[in-house]
């Protein structure tokens, strides 16, 4: 009988040490492993290719997402780069969201300009534009839902079906929700990618990424290429990621509850021009989110009514929300999208994606929700009386 997500996150990979009976798997820091004899390697020979600590966390990641195998990489961006290296050649086409994470956009844009592959950025909620892009027979279709930073929701099952009709592989960036709240492989995706730096680790002390594959052959191919180009995760990073995963479900549910309370407060705040949060019934993707997610997550964005000085006063008055990039940690963070996470996008591209200069993205942590709301309230007052 299969266990629930919270149980898998805590139990998978535990109690596997046969030498000392360690409940927590040991950290194997060795870079190399001896051969038992001439041309007789062990299961591991060199840690870039395989490491016992990384093996454990990869097993847990695959179980959480329901995949056949996983590859842990040195960062979320190295996971994205690995995907493109494995599945795209010069002349091949990638279809990506027009409002995808700024780092992904920068990578796709820069490599396409060098001829590594071609890319089309498209509003995937625009069915006509999406079908026009897919008619050009892409090899890979990237889906990011909820999107970063506008929390747009697209139908994973529908887009995966369209991708498969034209012979493309479908990959879903599941960073914002984690497998606790969304299971893309169950909805038809071939691959799932994560910035493990975010919710999976949850403590803002690790840079890592992961790709989980539904097909074991694809998983093996990804592992071969990860070793080949040297993007695999380190042993100590594997330990940190596994430690973070143990509390994944508890953290995500508390963060989600806090986000719901903050969203309710922001709806009543006159200085908020627009609020982006899929739990709101007037959110364009609300019904799709209800269908494919088991929760709405802890990310939200809003546009502040005012000029740059208003923005500066608001941000400087915050005490509990740290002005910083990244997301998914136990502490609450706020970022100004245009000058931080999406600064790598040209102003024209940001405008086309709907990212304004007044947009703020919030990653809600596990602090007391009333303290967080009080902090926001003081900041709004400071911005209004500048």
Give a topology summary.
Layout lengths: L4 H7 L40 H14 L3 E5 L2 H12 L5 E5 L4 H12 L4 E5 L4 H8 L5 E5 L11 H10 L3 E5 L4 H4 L9 E5 L13 E5 L2 H14 L5 H11 L2 H20 L4 E5 L9 H7 L6 E6 L3 H10 L4 E2 L9 E4 L10 H7 L5 E5 L5 H16 L2
Parallel strand pairs: 2-3, 2-4, 4-5, 5-6, 10-11
Antiparallel strand pairs: 1-7, 6-7, 8-9, 9-12, 11-12
Sum this structure up briefly:
The chain is an alpha/beta fold. The chain has helices at residues 5-11, 52-65, 76-87, 102-113, 127-134, 156-165, 178-181, 216-229, 235-245, 248-267, 286-292, 308-317, 347-353, 369-384, and strands at 69-73, 93-97, 118-122, 140-144, 169-173, 191-195, 209-213, 272-276, 299-304, 322-323, 333-336, 359-363. It is an enzyme of class 2 (transferase).
Can you walk me through this structure?
This protein is α/β, with parallel strands linked by helices and 386 residues long. The protein has two domains: 3-242, Type I PLP-dependent aspartate aminotransferase-like (Major domain) (Aspartate Aminotransferase, domain 2, 3-Layer(aba) Sandwich), CATH 3.40.640.10; 247-382, Aspartate Aminotransferase, domain 1 (Alpha-Beta Complex), CATH 3.90.1150.10. 39% of the residues lie in helices and 15% in strands. The chain has 14 helices and twelve strands. It has helices spanning 5-11, 52-65, 76-87, 102-113, 127-134, 156-165, 178-181, 216-229, 235-245, 248-267, 286-292, 308-317, 347-353, 369-384; strands spanning 69-73, 93-97, 118-122, 140-144, 169-173, 191-195, 209-213, 272-276, 299-304, 322-323, 333-336, 359-363. The strands form two sheets. A seven-stranded mixed sheet has the order 1-7-6-5-4-2-3, sandwiched between helices. Strands 8-9-12-11-10 form a five-stranded mixed sheet. The radius of gyration is 21 Å and the shape is globular. The model has no long low-confidence stretch (mean pLDDT 95). Keywords: Pyridoxal phosphate, Transferase. Belongs to the trans-sulfuration enzymes family. It is an enzyme of class 2 (transferase).
């Amino acid at each position: 009988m299969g266990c629930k997500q919270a149980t898998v996150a805590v139990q998978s990979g535990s109690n596997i040490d046969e030498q000392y009976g360690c409940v927590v798997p040991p950290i194997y820091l060795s870079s190399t492993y001896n051969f038992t004899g001439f041309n007789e390697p062990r299961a591991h020979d060199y840690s870039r290719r395989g490491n016992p600590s990384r093996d454990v966390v990869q097993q847990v990641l695959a179980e959480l997402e329901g995949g056949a195998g996983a590859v842990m990489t040195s960062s979320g961006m190295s996971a994205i780069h690995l995907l493109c290296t494995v599945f795209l050649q010069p002349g091949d086409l990638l279809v990506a969201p027009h409002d995808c994470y700024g780092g992904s956009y920068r990578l796709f844009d820069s490599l396409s300009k060098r001829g590594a592959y071609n890319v089309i950025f498209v509003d995937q909620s625009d069915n006509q534009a999406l079908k026009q892009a897919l008619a050009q027979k892409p090899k890979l279709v990237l889906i990011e839902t909820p999107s970063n930073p506008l929390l747009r929701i697209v139908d994973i099952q529908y887009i995966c079906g369209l991708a498969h009709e034209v012979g493309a592989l479908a990959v879903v960036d599941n960073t914002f929700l984690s497998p606790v709240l969304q299971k893309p492989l169950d909805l038809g995706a071939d691959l799932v990618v994560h910035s493990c730096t975010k919710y999976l680790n949850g403590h803002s002390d690790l840079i890592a990424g992961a790709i989980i594959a539904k097909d074991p052959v694809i998983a093996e191919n990804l592992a071969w290429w990860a070793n080949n180009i040297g993007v695999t995760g380190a042993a100590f990073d594997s330990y940190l990621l596994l430690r973070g995963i143990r509390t994944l479900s508890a953290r995500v549910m508390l963060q989600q509850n806090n986000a719901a309370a903050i969203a309710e407060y922001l709806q009543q705040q006159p200085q908020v021009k627009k609020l982006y949060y899929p739990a709101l019934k007037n959110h364009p993707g609300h019904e799709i989110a209800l269908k494919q997610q088991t929760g709405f997550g802890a990310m939200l964005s809003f546009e502040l009514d005012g000029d740059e000085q208003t923005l500066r006063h608001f941000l400087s008055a915050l005490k509990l929300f740290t002005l910083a990039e990244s997301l998914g940690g136990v502490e609450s963070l706020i970022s100004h999208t245009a000058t931080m996470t999406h600064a790598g996008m040209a102003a024209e591209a940001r405008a086309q994606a709907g990212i304004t200069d007044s947009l703020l993205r919030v990653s809600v942590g596990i602090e007391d929700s009333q303290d967080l709301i009080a902090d926001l309230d003081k900041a709004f007052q400071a911005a209004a009386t500048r």
